[in-house]
Design goal:
- The protein is mainly α and 322 residues long.
- It has one domain.
- It has helices at 9-37, 40-61, 63-77, 89-106, 108-129, 141-158, 172-199, 202-228, 243-284, 294-311.
Length: 322
Amino acid sequence: MSHQSHLPAVIGLPLAMLAGVAIPLQGRVNGALGTRLDDGIAAALVSFGTGLVFMVIISLTVPRGRAGLKELLPSIREHRFPRIYLAAGMIGALFVFSQSLTIGLLGVALFTVAAVMGQTLSGLLVDRAGIGPGGRRRVTPMRLIGVVLTVASVVWAVSPRLGGTGQVAELLLPLMLPVLAGIMMSYQQAMNGTAAVHYGTPITATLVNFIAGTSLLLAAWLVKIAVAGVGEPLPAEWWYYVGGPMGCVFIGVGALLVRSLGVLLTGLGMIAGQLVGSLVLDLLVPTPGTVIALATVAGPVLTLGAIVLTTLPWPRRTRRTR
């Protein structure tokens, strides 16, 4: 088992935010690729496939990656963790698939709100159950306030884009998929973090993650082409293929941090990074329909405040002695 030192929050939270910035970047690339191929499943498969190739290269060339590969089979044979954890990558595939299936109907803003709601609430429960490598973490009032403020800040940040999403009542059923995907993301981080501890490195956990996700997406794509045929050919531009390595950063850093920060705080840090990254993208490389308003800027700031509150201890009452 790894004896990696725990990272303090002052270091871990900025790392989580940097990893979160990769999410909107990856979304832009995968969205453009899906449009180019006219096939969301194929775009997700390309993203996972390139990420898998990237992780194979890292695992074979980096000393810690090779050391982690040596621990892979012994960890499985000795049941150091439940074998279902090997399928954690399928949760990532579900998240990408839910993007391709529902964003066209819901819009990016409503999808983001639904996914964040699921992820923050489940992060609280996963920490309480002690599923991740960081052990049990109490549900304190400060953590509850942080979760509520995070969801509120995300709703506020994306509110300028919610006007054209149609009647919410008609979208309740499609909304369930991103909520479910968000809920499962916390479990994915917990499973990857636990596996990383036993492998001795998040590199191997990320590699296994991409093997599982690529396998599921490949099966889905084969069913799709059997029904509807193959879409457009792959583009030649290199930037269409950087989404996979960005996903490696997101998953690997998450697996590294959950032991120190817990699932909830790691998720909140990545959500803050996602909002900041989206804002920077909208400012530097705006897409048609981009809206920059006070809420767009204030939402990430409120998220940072929610993270600070979540890290604060809740004072316990001391018993009075007679």
